What we know:
Elements: E1 5-11, E2 14-21, H1 30-39, E3 42-44, E4 55-57, H2 59-71, E5 78-80, E6 89-96, E7 99-104, E8 109-111, H3 113-119
Parallel strand pairs: 1-6, 3-4
Antiparallel strand pairs: 1-2, 2-5, 6-7, 7-8
Helix pairs in contact: 1-2, 1-3
Amino acid sequence: MGTRSTLAFKEDNKILVKLYVQYDGYPDGYMKEVAKFISSKKLVNGISPGQEKEVFNGFGCLAAQVISYLKNGTAGGYYITTLDDFQEYNYEIELENGIIKIKEKNEAINLTPKEYLKNF
């Protein structure tokens, strides 16, 4: 049995995309990898030549890059969904006043990616 979860990407209080994740949904599971990946780049609005691998060009680009990073082929247990938040863990990555936050309601998590890595 896996620890199922959802992962929503929210900007301006709207969900851009939501994933259903089949396994490793506990806080020190795949979300630790997501926090590490997000921390490795900078969120910008517009890029210069040569910057492509160093930045997320907007929040939608961040969501797309995280999904690509997680999916890594046809396997992996990551699926786009419209499911409600009835999984064991229900994460949100949200852009709040220019700051990226990782949230989980049941665990009362509300941290930046770097804070998340320190805690998990």
